[in-house]
Amino acid sequence: MRVFLSIQIFDLCRIYSNFTFSPDFWRSKQAFCALGLTNFAEFFSYNIPCRTERWEETVTYRVYADVILLQNLAADFLLLSVVKNCLRLPERRYGRLAGSLLGAVYALGMVLAPIPLGYAGRMLLSATMSVLMAWTAFSIHRKSEAAEAAIGLYIASMLAAGCMELVQPLGIRVNLLFWLFTAGGSFLIPSAVWRFGMQRCMKLEHQYAVTLFNKGRERHVQAILDTGNHLTMPLSGRPVQVLDACAAEKFFSWEDGVQYIPFRSVGKGGGVIPAYQAERMEVSGQGGMRVIEKPWIAISQEALSQKGEYQMLLNEKYWL
Predict the structure, then answer these.
(1) How far is residue 38's CA from residue 34's CA, in Å, rounded to a whole number?
(2) What is the distance between the alpha carbons of residues 316 and 231, in angstroms, rounded to a whole number?
(3) Beta bridge partners of 207
C-alpha cells in the first residue's frame, strides 16, 4: 500500500493534506474508517462529506488540520472537565487547555503520519497518551493518581462516545455551534452517570463506622472514603482526616494543641484548616477493622454532607 503525503498552507492558518491510496486500499473501504475526514468548505461547517477525485489507480482525500485540531481540542477539553469534576482532581494552571491541546496534536499526528501498530501497540500508545494528558492537566504527585485519572479518562471517553453516537445526525449538514451544543450535552450524561455511580459506590462499599478516642472522651461518627482527600501533614506527610465541626464539638480543646495546615479545595480556592491529634481512631467497614494510633483530624466549619449521612472524610490511604 502506497501513501503519499503533501501539506499546503492556505491563508497561514488553513492546512490540508492530500492522501493518495492504492486501489486495494479503496476496495477494502478502510479509507473512511481509518481517517474519518471532513471538508472545511465553510467556516462553520464541519461534517460536509469530503470531495474525492477518483482516477484510474488512486483515490485522493483532502484533510484539513485545523478542523481535526479544533474538534479534538474541544472533545478532549470536555473529557478532562468530566474527569476533573468527577474525581475532584486539583488542576494545574491552564492544565485542561494544555492537556487537550496535547491530545489534539496527537490525534493530528496519527492522521498525518499513521504508525503501523498492532492492537496491543495501539492500546499501549493510547494508554501512554492518556497518562500524559492527565499529568499535564492535573496536579498529580503519585503514580496511583495518574493511573486513576487515565482510567477515568478512558471511561469518560467510552461513555461520551456512546452518547455522541446516539445523537449524531447521520447525513445531515451540521454547523459548529450545533456540534458544540451536542457534544456538551453528551459529556454531561457521562458526568451524571459517573457521579451517581461514585455516590452509590461510596455508600455501599466505602462507608465506615469510626470511633475516636481522646483523653477519656469517645465519639462515634459515620465516615466515607474520599478519594479526593489527599490532605497530609506538611512535615511528616501523615494522612489527615476531615471531621465536621458539629461532630467535633467538645471533643478537642486548645490544650490538645492545634496545627494549621494548608489545603486546596476544588471550586473554593485554598487556605488553612485547623487540625488536632487524637489518641486513637478505630475504623470499621466491610473489609474489617483498622486501628490508627495518633491520627490527625482536621476540623471543617462547613457541613460535609447536606443530609447528614456522614460526618467524616477518611483519607484515601485508609482504604480497607
Answers:
(1) 13
(2) 9
(3) 224
Q: What are phi and psi of 197, to 5 degrees?
A: -65, -40
- SS3 letters across 49-114: CCCCEECCCCEEEEEEHHHHHHHHHHHHHHHHHHHHHHHCCCECCCHHHHHHHHHHHHHHHHHHCC
Can you name the residues that pair with 201 across neighbouring β-strands?
Answer: none
- Phi and psi at 312, nearest 5°, equal -140, 145
The string of pLDDT tens digits covering residues 198-250 is: 555 545 457 889 999 998 999 999 998 877 677 888 888 889 999 999 989 88
Task: Break the chain into its structural domains and give their ranges.
Answer: 1-205, 206-318
Sheet holding 217-225, edge to edge: 259-265, 269-277, 296-300, 240-244, 312-314, 217-225, 207-214, 280-285, 288-293
Cell output for 103:
491530545
Q: Which of 60, 37, 61 is nearest to 48 (CA)?
A: 37
d(CA 132, CA 110): 16
**Residue given cell 489545603 in the structure block:** 263
Domain 206-318 CATH assignment equals 2.40.70 = yes
pLDDT in tens, 31-76: 333 333 344 344 334 333 444 444 445 556 666 778 788 888 888 8
Instruction: Determine the Cα–Cα distance for residues 44 and 174; give it in Å rounded to an integer.
Output: 8
State the Cα–Cα distance between residues 84 and 62, nearest whole angstrom. Answer: 36
